[in-house]
Amino acid sequence: MFDLTNKRIWVAGHRGMVGRAVVRALADEPCEVLTVDRQSCDLTRQSEVESWMADNKPDAIILCAARVGGILANDTYPADFIYDNLMIESHIIAAAHQQKTEKLLFLGSSCIYPKMASQPISEQALLTGDLEPTNEWYAIAKIAGIKLCQAYRKQHGCDFISAMPTNLYGPYDNFDLQSSHVIPALMRKCHEAKISGSESMEVWGSGKVMREFLHVDDCAAGIIYLLKHYSDHEHVNLGTGEDVTITQLVETIQHVVGFDGTLRFDTSKPDGTPRKLLDVSKINQLGWTHTTSLAQGLTDTYQWFLDNQISKS
Ligand SMILES: NC(=O)c1ccc[n+]([C@@H]2O[C@H](COP(=O)([O-])OP(=O)(O)OC[C@H]3O[C@@H](n4cnc5c(N)ncnc54)[C@H](OP(=O)(O)O)[C@@H]3O)[C@@H](O)[C@H]2O)c1
């Protein structure tokens, strides 16, 4: 058990969707939260990371910083995705070892798993097959992050662990239709269809593929649970273990938004992999499970969207 009392915890990437949720969750813990902006410490620059770490000496680090983006961004900027992510994680993990940081949690993503992994995807599926080619640059960097934590544990006895969250949604998600993930994209489209009085709304793909979604506040709770209670070599999946079809997802969003028009499925758009569900039996056995239902999480997220995106646009 890692006791957070009076600990100084650096949330790297505190301005991102996950980092903000972790900072919100740590407000309920008896610890001090450390943060640093990119202008003061560019995490791709080793000297800046080493200098900030030497000055601040956190007791623990939650590594939420990363270059993150959708398929288009990954495909357009593969060098930036692999280089920035390798640098950010290498600099922070090596500096954590130099400064004798007691605990570090590295955050990856479910894209580390092979494209054709059997479902639900267990932790052991790592490196058993080919990756999805569209985001392999990002995935390779994230796999290297897991391996860095394992190598520092093996060689130096560092208590560095890794968590792999499924698809996330919630406050501070990206609602830009050009670059957003499925939930904010569908929520925005649905909202705009309602406001404009449309009779129907377009949905990309067949609606038949299945996806798992975790509210970002549940993700933050799971991260803090692992920080406190987990100390081992293998990474841990972080999800709900439940999935829905895209059609079920859109219907729930329609209900939340209050749009009762019909759905037009554009089957000329790609569906992607038919199913992607994490096996969460490991984290469940460790004693943690998610608490926010998809309907409740979508309701909260729509309210956040109305309060923060619509009222300010
Ligand atoms: N979002 C999801 O659905 C999802 C799902 C699974 C896993 N994850 C994982 O969760 C982690 C966080 O994702 P997120 O959605 O919160 O991403 P995000 O909103 O894009 O936040 C990323 C954070 O990293 C910081 N950052 C990036 N490059 C930096 C640099 N060179 N120097 C300093 N700071 C830098 C950003 O700072 P600025 O604010 O200055 O840009 C930002 O605060 C990632 O590892 C991702 O793989 C996310």
Describe what is shown at a glance.
By secondary structure, the protein is an alpha/beta fold. It is 42% helix and 15% strand.
Number of helices: 10
Which stretches are poorly predicted, pLDDT < 50 over at least 5 residues? none
What characterizes the major β-sheet?
Answer: 6 strands, parallel
Label the CATH architecture of the largest domain: 3-Layer(aba) Sandwich
- The total tally of domains equals 2
* Estimated structural class: alpha/beta
Q: pLDDT average, as an integer?
A: 96
Largest beta sheet: strand ordering: 2-1-3-4-5-10
Measured between the Cα atoms of the first and last residue, the distance is 45 Å
Number of strands: 13
Task: Report the principal-axis shape.
Answer: globular
The CATH superfamily of the largest domain turns out to be NAD(P)-binding Rossmann-like Domain
CATH fold field value of the largest domain: Rossmann fold
Chemical compounds bound to the protein: NADP nicotinamide-adenine-dinucleotide phosphate
Question: What would you say this structure looks like, in words?
Answer:
With 313 residues, the protein is α/β, with parallel strands linked by helices. The protein has 2 domains: 8-169 and 213-238, NAD(P)-binding Rossmann-like Domain (Rossmann fold), CATH 3.40.50.720; 182-210 and 243-277 and 292-310, UDP-galactose 4-epimerase, domain 1 (Alpha-Beta Complex). It is built from 10 helices and 13 strands. It has helices spanning 17-26, 46-56, 71-76, 78-98, 136-156, 182-196, 216-229, 246-257, 281-286, 294-310; strands at residues 8-12, 32-34, 60-63, 103-107, 160-165, 167-169, 200-204, 210-211, 213-215, 236-238, 244-245, 262-266, 275-276. The strands form 4 sheets. The protein has a 6-stranded parallel β-sheet, sandwiched between helices. The protein has a 3-stranded mixed β-sheet with strand order 11-8-13. Strands 6-9 form a two-stranded parallel ribbon. The relative contact order is 0.14. The structure holds NADP nicotinamide-adenine-dinucleotide phosphate.
